[in-house]
UniProtKB/TrEMBL annotation:
Signal peptide: none annotated. Transmembrane segments: none annotated. It comes from the Bacteria. Residues 8-53 form the SpoVT-AbrB domain. GO terms for molecular function: DNA binding. SUPFAM superfamilies: AbrB/MazE/MraZ-like (SSF89447). This is SpoVT-AbrB domain-containing protein. It holds the Pfam family MazE_antitoxin.
Length: 81
């Protein structure tokens, strides 16, 4: 990202569009979950990292692996190879 201080107008339903530079810079995709947090300084928008297995997409029995997650069944499959 090369710039801070984007100004966006709320539409008639109270929605805003995140600037493309921000979305691309943070890897935010359509339908991603974001969390609004109210702070003294204003509103902070937090990107929620989806926890799912990098190999099969499951969100159960996850173990952290580098910058993502792998589920235990996939780990067992890999060990059997
Ligand atoms: Zn898996």
């Amino acid at each position: 990202m090369h710039r801070a201080g984007w100004v966006r107008k709320l539409d008639f339903l109270g929605r805003i569009v995140l600037p493309m530079d921000i979305r691309r810079g943070l890897g935010i995709e359509k339908q991603d979950d974001l969390e609004f947090s109210l702070q003294e300084q204003g509103i902070i928008l937090i990107q929620i990292v989806k926890k799912q297995c990098r190999l099969c997409g499951s969100n159960h029995s996850l173990m952290p692996y580098r910058d993502s997650f792998v589920c235990i069944p996939c780990i067992r499959e890999l060990k059997a190879v």
